[in-house]
């Protein structure tokens, strides 16, 4: 089974469920640079280390609304700059460029909608600073940036308190991931840890119920009586939860689907799990 879907066994989920003020260097009036040099071949653009790349309307506009996000450089086409002005988002003032200039700075298939920003990463909170009044998502080696970005978007929609990932075997919060997150990075903290099992134990010590999503789970997620705080744990597509992660969870749950296709990719699985868990906690 490919990266785009989850097998019905050994997957993340189960029968039917697989899984301050903003600073800116060089503020001033918009500038018009000369014609950009043509981009040769299809090489990947290079960026300075520890730089977050955002492109597209939602990622960039939400970053501009976030006082905690320090933007180093902002590029916009004339049409995109007009849209920013209509939304009251001209601080910092963008550098006006032709679309080809942004094309040169992003990957070949990127849909940038005339907006591009280079930013500092947002601060990653400590695990013990995560609020204990809601849901936390834990990702066990989910590596595809499209999937993680979509999970971040769903997490922001469901007011998830944090997403916990490992330093290794997880994509950086930039570029493709940020585009797929559609602005969600500005609203959902990402907590990175060295050891996932130890982090899960730390969440349990703070009162979290650890629910792993697994196709062989002994109970349907909707049948569990849940009270906040809850940590939903999802594994990588194909592999699912690692054995140590499974052993650390308090419950292994599945979500049964009625249709002929009994698997979802991990980002869709996360959204469905958040919906079910959110309703269960409200009861």
Which tags fit this structure?
283 residues, alpha/beta, Alpha/beta knot, 7-stranded parallel sheet, 4-stranded mixed sheet, 8 helices, elongated, disordered N terminus
Structural class: alpha/beta
CATH homologous superfamily caption of the domain at 127-282:
SPOUT methyltransferase, trefoil knot domain
Gap between N and C termini? 37 Å
Q: What is the spatial order of strands in the main beta sheet?
A: 7-6-5-10-8-11-9
- Model regions low in confidence, pLDDT < 50 over at least 5 residues: 1-43
Report the major sheet. Answer: 7 strands, parallel
Oligomer status: single chain
Proportion in helices: 25-40%
CATH class of the domain at 127-282: Alpha Beta
**Number of distinct helices:** 8
C-alpha geometry? elongated
Mean pLDDT: 86
GO biological process, one term: RNA processing
InterPro entries: Alpha/beta_knot_MTases, Ribosomal_eL30-like_sf, rRNA_MeTrfase_TrmH, SpoU_MeTrfase, SpoU_subst-bd, tRNA_m1G_MTases_N
Region (Disordered): 1-47
GO molecular function, one term: RNA methyltransferase activity
Description:
The protein is α/β, with parallel strands linked by helices. The chain has a domain at 127-282: SPOUT methyltransferase, trefoil knot domain (Alpha/beta knot, 3-Layer(aba) Sandwich). The chain is built from eight helices and eleven strands. It has helices spanning 57-65, 78-86, 99-105, 145-157, 175-181, 196-205, 243-248, 266-282, and strands at residues 52-55, 71-76, 95-96, 115-119, 135-140, 162-166, 190-193, 209-213, 219-220, 230-235, 251-254. Strands 7-6-5-10-8-11-9 form a seven-stranded parallel β-sheet, with helices on both faces. The chain has a four-stranded mixed β-sheet with strand order 1-4-2-3, with helices on both faces. Strand 5, helix 4 and strand 6 form a beta-alpha-beta unit. Helix 4 runs parallel beside helix 5 (175-181) and helix 4 (145-157) runs parallel beside helix 8.
């Amino acid at each position: 089974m490919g990266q785009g879907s989850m097998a019905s066994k050994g997957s993340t989920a189960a029968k039917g469920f697989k899984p301050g003020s903003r600073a800116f260097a060089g503020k001033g009036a918009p500038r018009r640079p000369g014609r950009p040099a043509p981009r040769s071949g299809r090489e990947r653009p290079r960026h300075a280390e520890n730089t977050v790349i955002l492109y597209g309307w939602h990622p960039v506009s939400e970053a501009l609304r976030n006082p905690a996000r320090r933007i180093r450089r902002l590029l916009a086409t004339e049409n995109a700059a007009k849209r920013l002005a209509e939304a009251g988002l001209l601080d910092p003032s963008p550098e006006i460029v032709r679309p080809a200039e942004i094309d040169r700075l992003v990957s070949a298939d990127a849909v940038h909608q005339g907006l591009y920003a280079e930013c500092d990463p947002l601060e990653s909170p400590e695990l013990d600073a995560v609020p204990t009044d809601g849901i936390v998502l834990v990702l066990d080696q989910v590596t595809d940036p499209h999937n993680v970005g979509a999970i971040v978007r769903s997490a922001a929609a469901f007011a998830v308190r944090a997403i916990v990932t490992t330093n290794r075997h997880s994509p950086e919060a930039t570029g493709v991931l940020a585009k797929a997150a559609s602005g969600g990075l500005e609203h959902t903290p990402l907590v990175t840890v060295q050891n996932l099992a130890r982090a899960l134990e730390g969440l349990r010590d703070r009162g979290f119920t650890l629910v792993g999503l697994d196709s062989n789970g002994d109970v349907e997620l909707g049948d569990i009586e849940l009270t906040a705080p809850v940590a939903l744990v999802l594994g990588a597509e194909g592999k699912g939860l690692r054995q140590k992660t499974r052993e650390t969870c308090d419950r292994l749950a599945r979500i049964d689907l009625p249709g002929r296709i009994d698997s979802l990719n991990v980002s869709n699985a996360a959204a469905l799990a958040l919906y079910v868990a959110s309703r269960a906690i409200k009861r």
